[in-house]
Design goal:
Helices cover 39% and strands 16% of the residues. By secondary structure, the chain is α/β, with parallel strands linked by helices. The chain has one domain (3-306): 3-Layer(aba) Sandwich (Arginase, Chain A), CATH 3.40.800. Bound molecules: zinc ion.
Length: 309
């Protein structure tokens, strides 16, 4: 067993305002879940803030500078209809991306085989030059670029099982034949991208849209028939997971019917892929999940399997 949890108290202080589904209670629910056995004994590390250069490896410099300025001034700002900054957001926004970079450093150094980054806000909708759908910076993409730029790891893959399509991550790696992005998501649903026909310039984008009401069978069929074979053909040197738990049946923002055990199933399959191709190394990053019990359930199922890597 060698799994590290990377998180930070600052994730509580990103205040999205009353009634917002992406709320501080989410990270509390994750922490409480991971305080239980067998997770209580897992080493914890504090997420460091991402540096401007790490952010600018995937985001347009002008966009990074604009957000950093707002964060430094501690201004409340509405970046898009769903995405806000609060006076306390600076640590959370920077550490959410920095956690993933630290996770990469830890698995590359052999300090862990798997890492779970318990972060908020989520990241996979954020595009090169714009925030979107609760996401300010694309945390997983920042980590993927860090793996390349810092460690020379060229072939990187990200599997995104959040119920929403990871449009930002897809866009950043669309023309990159050394990056594979695979996503299961409900369709139709926000943000509206993720059709099967979106394949990327080199065929390394794999989209598995699932009809509303889809449950275990359709989800796992998509994973087993489309995503696992693509990963085996691609042979990543490092595997990332955009781990959203809003495909849970109880989630208020979507209509898939997954249960905690489904997150264990998909994680187990990805652990096997990582064992075959990249020494079991996985950096997993929390994305969505808006029913607190479903989020906690999903996280526990997911981390339990990461511990088996
Ligand atoms: Zn989501």
């Amino acid at each position: 067993m060698s799994t590290i949890i990377i998180t930070h108290e600052d994730f509580l202080h990103h205040d999205t305002g009353p009634g917002h589904p992406e709320r501080p209670d989410r990270i509390r629910a994750v922490w409480m879940a991971l305080e239980q056995e067998p997770f209580a004994a897992l080493p914890r590390r504090e997420a460091p803030p991402a540096t401007p250069d790490q952010l600018k490896a995937v985001h347009l410099p002008a966009y990074v500078d604009m957000v950093l300025e707002a964060l430094d001034e501690g201004r409340a700002a509405r970046l898009d209809p769903d995405t806000v900054l609060s006076p306390g957001s600076r640590g959370a926004v920077l550490r959410a991306a920095g956690a993933v970079c630290a996770g990469v450093d830890a698995v590359v150094a052999g300090e862990a085989s798997t890492v779970f980054c318990a972060v908020r806000p989520c990241g996979h909708h954020a595009e090169q030059a714009r925030p979107m759908g609760f996401c300010v910076f694309n945390n997983v993409a920042v980590g993927m670029a860090h793996a390349r730029n810092r460690h020379g790891i060229q072939r990187i893959a990200c599997v995104d099982f959040d119920v929403h399509h990871g449009n930002g991550t897809q866009a950043m790696f669309y023309d990159d034949g050394d990056a594979l992005f695979a996503s299961t998501h409900q369709s139709p649903l926000y943000p509206g991208t993720g059709a099967e026909s979106e394949r990327g310039r080199y065929g390394t984008i794999i989209n598995v849209p699932l009809a509303p009401g889809s449950a275990t069978d359709a989800f796992m069929a998509g994973v087993e028939r489309r995503i696992l074979p693509a990963l085996d053909a691609f042979k990543p040197e490092l595997l990332f997971i955009s781990a959203g738990f809003d495909a849970h049946a109880d989630d208020p923002l979507a209509g898939l019917e997954l249960e905690g055990e489904d997150f264990a199933r998909v994680t187990r399959a990805l652990v096997d892929v990582a064992r075959r191709h990249c020494g079991g190394r996985i950096v997993s990053v929390l994305e969505g999940g808006y029913d607190l019990a479903g989020l906690a359930d999903g996280c526990m199922a997911h981390v339990r399997e990461l511990m088996a890597a």
